[in-house]
Each structure stands twice: as structure tokens, then as C-alpha cells.
Amino acid sequence: MMRVTNHAAGPRLVWPKGARTPRLLVPGESAVIALPDRRDPCLAAWEAAGEVRIEAEPDPGAPDPRPERRRGRERPPSGGET
After folding, report:
1. How far apart are CA 4 and CA 27, in angstroms?
2. What is the dihedral of CA 38, 43, 44, 50, to 10 degrees?
3. Are 2 and 35 in contact (CB under 8 A)?
4. Which tens digits make up the pLDDT trace of 2-16?
């Protein structure tokens, strides 16, 4: 599985493997599509032109490499002691 993110000025049409219809990606939108490899000629041309970014989709069972960070100081629980 690969995550494709559109960085072009306009929409890009991708056809996920096994899908019945193509998918339109508007600028800034991402989609996870099944690609056997990154050598799809259309996506490769768009990637070379800087119009899309293609990256491997992380395993859903793997821990998040960028854990959420909390900002500010800890707050006491609501309704509790201060």
C-alpha cells in the first residue's frame, strides 16, 4: 500500500488497483492505494515533476513514530481539587 498526496495546482485522477472507478485527488488530499510498486509510469512522471508525493503506508499495527505531544502545563482533572 502506498500513500499518494497531491501537491499539484489542480486535481489528479488515480485509479486504485481493484477499484471500479477512479478517484479524484484535489490539491493537498491524500489517498492510500494498492500499488505493487512505485513504478507506475503516470505516478512516476507526476512525482518527478513534484506534483505528487508517494510514500509507503505504515503498518497499522506498528507504534506511531511521532507520538502526540502535549503543550502547556498539566491541568487538574475537572471537578477535582486544584
Report:
1. 11
2. -120
3. yes
4. 888 999 999 998 877
Q: What is the pLDDT of residues 15-25, one digit of tens each?
A: 776 778 888 99
Number of neighbours of residue 77 by Cβ within 10 angstroms: 7
**Residue appearing with cell numbers 479524484:** 24
- Residue 52: how many other CB atoms lie within 10 Å: 21
Taken as a whole, the chain contains a residue count of 82
Is residue 43 within a helix (H) or strand (E), and if so which, with residue range? Answer: helix 41-48
> How does DSSP classify residue 73?
-
Q: Which of 55, 47, 40, 58 is nearest to 2 (CA)?
A: 55
Fill in the amino acid letter for 80.
Answer: G
0.85 surpassed by pTM:
no
CA distance 8 to 50: 8
Strands 30-33, 2-6: pairing is antiparallel
